[in-house]
Amino acid sequence: MAWGSHGATAFATFMILCPTCFGLGILFSLFPYDYPILWNPAACPPEAYVRLENHLKFLHASPLIIPRILHTVIGTGLLGFFIKLYRPSESNMLFDGASLVLYMCGVIIYLANIVKGLRVVTSGVYDRELVEGELAVGVKGVEAGAEEFLGRDDSLKVMAASNTILALVLVGVLVLQAGQWYAERKEGQEVESHRARKEKTANGESKGEERNKHKSPNSKKKI
């Protein structure tokens, strides 16, 4: 069969790598906004926070088709993992299992930090509390169990740090997938080498048997 388990696995790997690289591309486009806030050795200018805040507001106000495309891409990566982990081998369990854990960590970071941060930045409501998912009134002294937001600058730093952590997680997925490819390639080379040695040994034995069959009768000892 031209399309076997190897072809399905290769296509599933393609389904994983494309969303991962897509996400890294998005994060790279955000890096010019995050760099002055997180990695600039000098004091961060106030304009950097304004640029990042305006950019995040613009992203959150994008048409509905943009997040739908993004969520479809994320779902494609998950589908690729499910295909590869259907009846998994030892290699799949090790590399793809660890890759899926990292991928899910990335999804959690996206939902818990980035999506929530975009809503906060768009609303402009910093230093307020969120009670059971709804904004409560007041800045201090709200009910027990309320979750307190950070200030504006700290919230933007958390957003920038979340992008960096998410980028590292996605790079980890790529490294694990590359490690799986390398391990399978080395295993295939060893199998081929072992098979070639066996064939060479079998050919040598068959040639030896042929020589013994065609030995001259004069070579026998005379009585």
From TrEMBL:
- The signal peptide annotation in the UniProt record is none
Q: Listed GO cellular component terms?
A: endoplasmic reticulum membrane
Keywords in alphabetical order, please. Answer: Membrane, Transmembrane, Transmembrane helix
Which Gene Ontology molecular function entries are recorded, alphabetically? unfolded protein binding
Region listing for Disordered, in residue ranges = 186-223
Q: Which Pfam families match?
A: SHR3_chaperone
Q: Where are the transmembrane segments?
A: 7-31, 65-86, 93-112, 158-176
UniProt keyword Secreted, yes or no? no
| Compositional bias (Basic residues) | 213-223
Give GO BP annotations, semicolon-separated. Answer: endoplasmic reticulum to Golgi vesicle-mediated transport
Q: What is this protein called?
A: Secretory component protein shr3
Naturally occurring in which organism (per UniProt): Letharia lupina
Q: What is the lineage of its organism?
A: Eukaryota, Fungi, Dikarya, Ascomycota, Pezizomycotina
